[in-house]
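Why show two proteins at once? Because comparison is the fastest way to build intuition. When a single record is shown, students tend to memorize it. When two are placed side by side, the eye starts asking what differs. So, the first record is below.
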Amino acid sequence: MKKGLIHVYTGAGKGKTTAAMGLALRAAGCGYQVKIFQFCKGRPSGELNMLQKLDRIELHRDECGSTKFSWDMNAEEKAEWIDAQQMLFDDACEAACDPDCDLVILDEALGAVHAGALQLSQLLYLMSHKYKGTELVITGRDAPEQLIQAADYVTEMRAVRHPYEQGIDARRGIEF
């Protein structure tokens, strides 16, 4: 790619990760090298099974391995989790500055910001210092205005109706 642009997929609706994974498949299908970094996600999900089979896609999660939500962690667990999110972010920065990496996805990085594991300033710094040819995608709810202004693409997923409102839990293969 000649010029890598910056995408933000945000909003309260379903589809942020799905859109990012779709872009990863499209890019890999065109011969691009893709690296995905998933923050705040320790539980298994359907896309992992397929993405790990593809040669041009590398998937990275934190080494902490916690399946708890950050708000359910005790102080020790949360400190370990925050350290793991920071290490994952450092790896993502390295990938985004690598001229051989065409697409870098920071899935649920905004969740890590809202949970106190990353700082908005870190994302903004990465956005302005990534390799010029690397496409960068950041996903998560409630994107701050500074992030929105710094991005080239901003897509907001808006929930109009969701089965959760009728008491239907997240379903394997559809929501995860």
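Second record. Ask yourself what differs from the first in the token line.
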Amino acid sequence: MAWRQFVMHLGNLDAEQVETILFESGASSVTLTDAGDDPVLEPGVGETPLWTDTRIIGLFAADADLQQLRDNLLTRLPVQQLPRHHIETLRDRVWEREWLKDFGPMLFGRRLWICPTGGRVSEDDAVVVDLDPGLAFGTGTHPTTAMCLEWLDGLSLRGKTMLDYGCGSGVLAIAALKLGAAAATGMDIDPQAVIATRQNAEFNDVASKMEILGAADEISGKYDVVVANILAGPLVQFAESITLTLCDEGMLALSGVLCEQADTVMRAYEPWIDFDDPAFKEQDGQTWSRLTGKRRPG
């Protein structure tokens, strides 16, 4: 099936109102994207900020009446003429596989590979996690995920337990199990992440060794290894509760932290954690950090 996209810069228009009109005019999906270069990295609690220059994209069937859509927008919006906009025709393709053009097997550390469906890894000692991008973030392409995967590859996980706090796609917990962990728990408050993690665990044949939770207060017991790849704000806010999931001398990795936030995050964990030197990785003009350490006994 072919599709067309209606693409418009929002300017000062209300995003929710425009989105409603697009859906009522037959849009199959509506997406908001950054039309400039103004990333929103860490909004405050309860905030849903947009970019200073926001683009809204409505996806329509090829035979949709987009002139009627324009008329609807002009009638219901407080404007004399629509902001800058255009229509794109999308050629038919298998969209759920389209990402494979830019996503092949990726190596993290010495032997840990993330491999898309249909990909192959020939190395004899390869540890392979089969993972397609799905409902939730986390395929290894972001520096924070990559650094956590590299760290896990360097650990001796045989027989250990692992907690993936804010699991997203479940890639870190699944990787730990593939690397020899005896059991893993993935926790995420996003229901879509829980669904994606469960599907990915089943696809990698590790579901029987993995517990998947939808809230932090469901976590019980203590773990040998805890990874929290979320954001600096929640890492600081929940420092004590995250630390309490670690057994004595358990190993902790914190990520999702920009380099300028690293000291603040480490200070929040200083009462319990002896940190190693931070690791840093740069991408797209931003430098991200991974903070690792061990819980002191007692």
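One difference worth noting in the second protein: The helical segments are 15-24, 66-76, 143-153, 171-178, 191-203, 232-237, 239-243, 262-269.
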